[in-house]
Specification:
alpha/beta, 8 helices, 12 strands, 221 residues, 4-stranded parallel β-sheet
Length: 221
């Protein structure tokens, strides 16, 4: 089965994983014209995505975690005024892979995930925005954001998604509320203190916790 030109933006930490190489060989064997690009960092990811779109790639898959996905999404969406120049696919290689799990992807089967990214029909989904940054999954503030930002990389590599839960228990002893204001279109502002804020475009965050059970990627909200 021959496809349009494809690009896999692969996190450099995952280059030598045997299951990643197997997945790439599998889709190429099925006829995928797949170009693998390995950016140096998040800033370089944006340029890699722009170059791929300019060179005619119609599907750009992301091989990495939620942070890598976020960098690629922001490059694809740009200022949000025009539709993205390519469809997005996911090869889940992160700690918890919350976005992939929330989409129902078989995150433990990388070959199947890359097959879906390369060959399955694309569909329109919503993209959220926090200030000037776009997000696909969940944006958070307060206690949850602090846990995500301070969980050590070595701990995530050792424990996977459970690392966030462990860090949450450690941080719980020092929790302090934040002052904030909630603004909802058509309603009066609500002011007060909070420990956690999360806005979900998808259901899962923080290592599999269902923070927004009713969120759907394609509900137009």
């Amino acid at each position: 089965m021959k496809t349009s030109k494809l690009c896999l933006v692969l996190n450099k930490k995952s280059v030598n994983r045997p299951e990643v190489r197997e997945a790439i060989e599998l889709v190429r064997g099925r006829g995928a014209d797949l170009d693998v690009r390995i950016p140096w960092d998040a800033e370089d990811s944006a340029q890699v995505v722009r170059d791929a779109v300019a060179q005619g790639c119609e599907r750009i898959s992301v091989g990495g975690g939620d942070g890598t996905i976020n960098a690629v999404v922001n490059a694809l969406v740009a200022d949000g005024r025009e539709p993205p120049g390519a469809a997005l696919g996911i090869l889940p290689l992160g700690t918890a892979n919350d976005f992939a799990h929330g989409c129902g992807l078989p995150a433990d089967d990388l070959s199947r995930c890359l097959e879906i990214a390369c060959f399955s029909p694309s569909k329109k989904i919503d993209v959220g925005r926090a200030d000037s940054r776009f997000f696909l999954n969940v944006t958070s503030g307060g206690y949850g954001a602090e846990i995500t930002a301070t969980t050590p990389g070595r701990l995530k590599k050792t424990l996977g998604g459970a690392a966030y839960s462990l860090m949450g228990l450690i941080k719980a002893f020092d929790m302090q509320p934040y002052d904030g204001r909630l603004l909802v279109p058509g309603e009066e502002p609500v002011e007060g203190s909070m420990l956690l804020m999360a806005v979900g475009n998808n259901r899962l965050a923080g290592g599999g916790f269902e923070v927004a059970p009713e969120a759907r990627l394609d509900d137009g909200l």
